[in-house]
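Severity: low
Component: inverse-folding endpoint
Summary: output formatting inconsistent between runs
Steps to reproduce: submit the following structure tokens with default settings.
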């Protein structure tokens, strides 16, 4: 592929999630003159599905995003054309182009590399820093080599990095991983200072259910979307958009999602398992069962919201909970409870136990449903 890379945004990952989230936001912002520019997408794996998406995205023509669901009590069924992606590359095949681009064109890096995206590979070594070396295997090593190239030619150039992996404080985690790898490779102390102090690593939380792909490229998603980014001096956003929120309280957004959306899903999974409900039942169908819906509403109202009330966050929590109801009542989304119920015991521990522990500090608050669920 000989197309030069000259976009200010470099994105690692071709997932349909990014197509319907960050890439769509950037497309909509570009139409208003409120984005840095277009995106170059990089495939980092050998996945055949990713390769097909890269081939389709490389044309720069764009792709459809269908938004279907319920918002504020009204049904939404709309389609948008996303045109933010200028081209798409494969890290292995187009590595030399990427190494040139990171030095002069790129201002923002976005990543969403999946569950194993931060796993290192023993095959990666300092040999990969040489000018004609092939691409590293792991994403962290790829990023380290690119950042080193940038530092060598422009040691004072800032770069804003937005990992979108579902890891708490993902920016801090990725920064520390890259610095650890640089230290293991015995790279220059001045470069490690550059990684720590000059690069801007954004902690953020992303959320949108992207339920289906559209072939060869595109996605079907729910109306709800958020990209909550922790405020940081010197951070360069890829765009401005109503769904992008700069906040000093990222933990609040994480807790809202974990303790209302995720907890609600796991409560439905708990009842599904205990009550022996239909194998193919969906969240939407479960919400149509009056008794089950009542138990979920009581759980939220009596055992979860008081925890946020004690922190002075009740109004914001109720607003968020209203959006969760819309999402659970999405007639277009076939979200099987059997899928939610995978790794159920671990999910219960992560989603129920912190609410219970915080609730125990509140005088007079009883949380019998959570107590019983964790005791099973």
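Observed output (run 2 of 3):
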């Amino acid at each position: 592929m000989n197309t030069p890379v000259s976009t200010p945004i470099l994105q690692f990952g071709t997932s349909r999630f990014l197509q319907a989230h960050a890439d769509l936001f950037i497309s909509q912002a570009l139409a208003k003159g409120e984005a840095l520019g277009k995106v170059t997408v990089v495939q980092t794996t050998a996945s055949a599905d990713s390769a097909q998406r890269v081939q389709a995205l490389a044309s720069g023509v764009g792709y459809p995003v269908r938004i279907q669901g319920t918002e504020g009590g009204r049904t939404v069924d709309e389609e948008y054309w996303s045109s933010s992606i200028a081209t798409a590359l494969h890290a292995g095949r187009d590595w030399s182009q990427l190494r040139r681009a990171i030095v002069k064109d790129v201002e923002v890096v976005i990543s969403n590399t999946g569950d194993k995206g931060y796993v290192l590979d023993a095959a990666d070594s300092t040999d990969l820093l040489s000018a004609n070396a092939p691409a590293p295997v792991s994403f962290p090593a790829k990023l380290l080599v690119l950042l080193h190239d940038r530092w060598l030619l422009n040691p004072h150039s800032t770069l804003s990095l937005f990992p979108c992996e579902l890891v708490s404080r993902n920016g801090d985690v990725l920064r520390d991983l890259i610095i650890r790898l640089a230290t293991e490779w015995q790279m220059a102390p001045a470069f490690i200072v550059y990684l720590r102090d000059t690069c801007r690593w954004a902690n953020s939380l992303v959320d949108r259910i992207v339920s289906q792909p559209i072939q060869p490229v595109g996605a079907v998603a729910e109306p709800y979307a958020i990209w909550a980014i922790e405020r940081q001096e010197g951070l360069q956003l890829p765009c401005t958009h109503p769904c992008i929120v700069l906040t000093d309280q990222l933990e609040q957004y994480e807790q809202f999602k974990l303790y209302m959306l995720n907890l609600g899903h796991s409560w439905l999974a708990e009842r599904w398992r205990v009550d022996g409900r239909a194998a193919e039942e969906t969240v939407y169908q479960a919400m149509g069962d009056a008794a089950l819906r009542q138990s979920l509403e009581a759980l939220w109202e009596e055992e979860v919201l008081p925890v946020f009330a004690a922190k002075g966050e009740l109004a914001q929590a109720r607003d968020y909970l209203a959006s969760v109801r819309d999402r659970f009542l999405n007639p277009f989304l076939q979200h099987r409870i059997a899928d939610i119920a995978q790794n159920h015991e671990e999910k219960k521990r992560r989603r129920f136990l912190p609410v219970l522990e915080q609730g125990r500090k509140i005088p007079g608050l009883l949380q019998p449903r959570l107590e019983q669920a964790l005791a099973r």
